[in-house]
Design brief:
Arc Repressor Mutant, subunit A, globular
């Protein structure tokens, strides 16, 4: 009987087009989350390098916080991850949903 094994890629393509591996992800001790680092973690999860649970545990994130990053990337790309732009993109998205 074949066991259910998770096959993970050795690398995925990062937000800037560079290869990302587990070793090149932001350090576990990261506390200052700049746009690039957030986008790298989202790309790692989307590409299967890490599971959502692993990413949250590794970086001390809540599921809601990670989901916010993921939605921001889906809606507005890396620019959506800028803290100063979150409210702008949120209101823009709300207007698009109402239209």
């Amino acid at each position: 009987m074949i066991e259910n094994q998770k096959i993970r890629p050795a690398q995925v393509i990062g937000p800037l087009g560079e290869p990302l591996t587990v070793d090149t992800l932001p350090p576990r001790s990261t506390t200052r989350w700049v746009v690039r680092r957030k986008a790298e973690v989202v790309a790692a999860v989307n590409g299967g390098l890490l599971s959502i649970d692993e990413a949250c545990e590794r970086y001390g994130l809540t599921l809601e916080e990670f989901a916010t990053w993921q939605r921001a990337v889906d809606r507005a790309g890396m620019a959506g991850l800028r803290v100063t732009r979150i409210q702008h993109y949120k209101s823009l998205y709300e207007r698009q949903r109402r239209a």
